[in-house]
Amino acid sequence: MFVSKEMHLYQFSQQAAATVKVESGRTVKVETLDAFSNQLKDEHSTFNEINMARVNPATGPIYIESAEPGDTLKVDIHKIELEEEGVMAVAPGLGVLGQQVETFSYKRMKVDEHGVHFSKNIILPLRKMIGVIGVAPSGEPISCGTPGDHGGNMDNTHMTEGATAYFPVAVKGALFALGDVHATMGDGEVCVTGVEIDATVSVTLTVLKKKSTMPWLENEQEIEVISSALTIEEATERAVKEWANILTERTPLTFNEATMLLSASGDLSICQVVNPLKTVRLAMSKALLKQTGLIEFPG
Amino acid sequence: MFVSKEMHLYQFSQQAAATVKVESGRTVKVETLDAFSNQLKDEHSTFNEINMARVNPATGPIYIESAEPGDTLKVDIHKIELEEEGVMAVAPGLGVLGQQVETFSYKRMKVDEHGVHFSKNIILPLRKMIGVIGVAPSGEPISCGTPGDHGGNMDNTHMTEGATAYFPVAVKGALFALGDVHATMGDGEVCVTGVEIDATVSVTLTVLKKKSTMPWLENEQEIEVISSALTIEEATERAVKEWANILTERTPLTFNEATMLLSASGDLSICQVVNPLKTVRLAMSKALLKQTGLIEFPG
């Protein structure tokens, strides 16, 4: 199954018409546009020419048969294949240093198996990841530029090959979409873009008949909850609360012991600090969780 | 040279009397008390009995001859030797979930080469680190519970064996101190304590005749600036600005290119979110910096 990048949207919405319908368990190749919908591929682009309504496209939505509100969508990320050119941009008012940036500028970079050719002397190692990924919310549509409990623009560097993501299904069919692939991005994405690039991503989409309330990610070593809110402080509180409640409900630990365990061994990290809501992840080692008796995905 | 844990202070202060004087380049063994000054070592302690004025002791201050305001103190961390018992505590009002914590509780844990014996079934891997480390500020004294550009309670999990820390010297002799060692702590220290433990730390203290304005840390892979402020957002802005200015001044990169490089390859991480000021680190790979032409400690 293949979904072309021509089939993209700019908001996660229960009203969006499905591009394809798939059975649970199917593997899908999803082709994606870069975060600017290729508007910066023209050598002479200026910031004023960018149509901001066409930023952060996500390919989809994909309707997964049997997905119902209250289920969880499991997304195994197999492979991220990059095109040959990426682009970065900075602009006044955007990113952590937006107030100091005086002029718009962008930079196109060749990308190959050696990495990202940032300049003649500087080659950045590849750190492929998916910026925007998620499902439709049950309420109002949410712009693909914003993260939330439906997923969206979480910009989590762990969202990469070999990882499994989990999203709470809010509408019939889930309406899954992904886009905004980066050839590399640092944790934080401090100046608003990674190396934005067209890509093709293979994922397996599986419906789990169990409830979750926030996005989770699992890789070989860790399980993490992903939390977004207006501030890093609020996002942090939501993440710690979710883990503390799960550990208290599903292991013999008391609430106070669960908080101690999180403080001693949970790693709180920044995903991004530049989108309308900020995103953190709180990760626990799977080897350690096994000792508590918690071995299944804890969403 | 050995400095006993009996010689400790609860604030970094230019007025503090030096416990010892050493030449630049000397290696010192610093013995430290746990973060509660051992007040929780009594089986029947209650939260009300803790004297909060005796929390976060740091051993010192150590006067380094030849250190003058405007210099940088380089601290090579060689070895952290732990005692055999650690303690964690949670209390109403403290930490990210302070409002949900109903009662004070604490837990003493055996610590050995296998790790931290959290409970009969749960052994946490050792992740030794130094919570409080720094020099005296030039102005008012700063409590050891608070981080800042002098160092202090940064709770950075990278502050461990093999790392080198750098602090801006603000007063004659630098007046270096360290304490608050953890047998393990997760990034964030979300519920206010790591596994607090007495320890002995060997460091080499060297005066560099060059200026810096913030704390830095270097390990085998990375160089990072450490930034503290009232919010994570403010701490982030200070860290990104410091790196962007250094890259712009000391490499051929323009300011806009420097911000792109930081966004593509700089990793913004949380040190802690539970002290009076919050702390982040912004790290760049040394292999990548070498390509920009920046090879020396950039403070």
From TrEMBL, chains A, B:
MF annotations from Gene Ontology? amidase activity
Asked whether the keyword Hydrolase is assigned, the reply is yes
Q: Which InterPro entries does UniProt cross-reference here?
A: FmdA_AmdA
Supply the Pfam families for this chain.
FmdA_AmdA (PF03069)
Top EC class per UniProt?
hydrolase
Q: Which SUPFAM superfamilies does this entry report, sorted A to Z?
A: Acetamidase/Formamidase-like (SSF141130)
Q: EC number(s) on record?
A: 3.5.1.4
Keyword annotations for this protein? Hydrolase
Q: Looking at the record's lineage, which domain of life comes first? A: Bacteria
Q: Do the record's keywords include Kinase?
A: no
Please give the PANTHER family that the UniProt record associates with this protein: FORMAMIDASE C869.04-RELATED
Query: What is the protein's given name?
Result: Amidase
